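Complex record, two chains
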Amino acid sequence: MNGEAILPYLIIIPLFGAFSMPIVSLAGRKAREAWAVIISGATLALGSALFYYVWESGKIVLYTLGAKSPLGQGVNFPIRIVWEVDTFGALMVLMVTFVSFMAVIYSLGYMKHDTGLDKYYTLIIILELGMLGIAITGDLFNFYVFLEIMSIASYALVAFRNDTWEGIEAGIKYMFVGSIASSLILLGIALLYGQYGTLTMGYLALKLSQNPTVVGKVALALFIAGLLFKSGASPVHMWLADAHPAAPSSISAMLSGLVIKIGGIYALTRILFSIYGTSISTKTVGWVIIVFACITLIVGNAMAVIQTDMKRLLAYSSVGQIGYILLGIGIGLTAYGSQTGEIALAGAIYHTFNHALMKALLFLIAGVVIHQLGTRNLNELSGLAKTMPKTTFAFLIGAAAIIGMPPLNGFASKWLIYESSAIFNPLLGAIAIIGTAFCTAAYVRVLYTFFGRPSEKVMKAKDPEGTMLWPILILTIAIIVMGLFPWQISDKIMIPAVKTLENQLAYVSTLLGGA
Amino acid sequence: MIQFQFITAFLLIVLGIYAFLAKRNLIKLILALDIIDSGIHLLLISLGYRIELNEVPTAPIYTGYETLKSPMVGPLPQALVLTSIVIGVCVLSLAIALTINAYRHYGTLDVRALRRLRG
């Protein structure tokens, strides 16, 4: 199937599904659940088709809204909103649709006892829609609109259980931090528009390379600040550790697995590589990101060790893993064009995908535990392995993958990042390894609790019902299967994705009509 | 000619950031967010309204623009600001809804009371 034909439906179907949800809910609970599964399933099918098309042809798919060509009548510069998808974007689309589908299926069982579920399913699909929009857009303002759609949906979902103080407090914190970050990004967009008079990413890249100005650099600083806020990098990670545990577990899986990647890492990478590229000093910007990455890496993983709340531990671990991804991006930017940079960037993209699967799996398991025992305090969960063997097995796989044990998928991506950072600067490699040591300590502690002596409380627990167990099993299988072919995936998917990402010229020339 | 709208825009943004950092009342924080947003909107609008050659630009209506002598206002920033205002309204309403809920749970609007999540 043709890539250009798929792109609009990737937005239309979730949008239609989300806003028809309240009407469909009138027909009852069964109809609502079926509708949510159908919509997210159809989006998954479209996302996989798009990824397959882009990956196989290696082309950049361009879709212009409202016309055949992005160029205006009689002028030779683009005036319309475009969507532009390369291999990296398509990979993100696949990741978003897959994890969202798992989260929706899981919600069927997990959210059964809550009220207001028509709003819940509407919001979860709008969240998916916002992330898909960010992944495919090729226009800065369009990017801002989708970023806000995603952010507003996630503020509302964090505070979804508004009968508890935890959700409200976390929601308010998340909302204030997120709105400030969005304002910074909007200010950057305004400055870029004032200087260059366009907001199309490809054309902006052309203008910037011809005339890099101070205003452009200030705008970049604002973008980096805003997007580091959104991705939960270390000096400003406080909101993440509050917001992600407070949300319902299916939403935590999406927030930790997807939102911080798409709204933070993906957008940052796209702006740094596709818009700015070599028109700025890649060394300086790269080192700025590396410094933030190292702080994030250490702080996130170290804070994870001392947590007693299971979901809070997972949230801090997310901060730590974001550090690895940022480290890969920073090295990729500093060593722009060299092979070390390519490996680092491939590792970062690979780890983004892997971490989405692993962290989604771990948060879904935390949800199962809360559902069965009503607590997430690690001190009360001892001996869970006796009564919940399948769940514990899945947790074991997820924890081993996130630590980076060899036969699982986390190993390959972390190895690429270690390898490139050790070649680039041995000190950075050492910092990455220290971070992993903390990470291992945190997860070993959870596993030690799970395999410990059973307490009375856990004796009544049992493995969950089908709709909650299946997403966990599917994610576990995905992690194991991806672990079996680490270098094939790296060579066939990640390296080409890096090549298209670094090829700024192709991104621009696709937009301007293959000149 | 000094373009006062740029100065006003940056003053608004700085004012908003000051209020965001200094104030402790939830409603005032929401107002601060709105002031920052207004500043950015004013900046965007003024970027489109450029006085060139001492001629005041007219509205961007394309029907019959051949007869027009003076330059037109850039239409793109206006579209952007309209969209951005709509987004701002969404954030504002959600923020107020959350504030009402917070008041029910905590009995105060002071953000310093919202400190139960720690660690």
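Note: Chain B touches chain A at residues 13, 20, 26, 29, 33, 36-37, 40, 43-44, 47, 74, 76-77, 80, 83-84, 87, 90-91, 94-95, 98-99, 101-102, 105-106, 111, 114, 116-117, 119 (CB under 8 Å).
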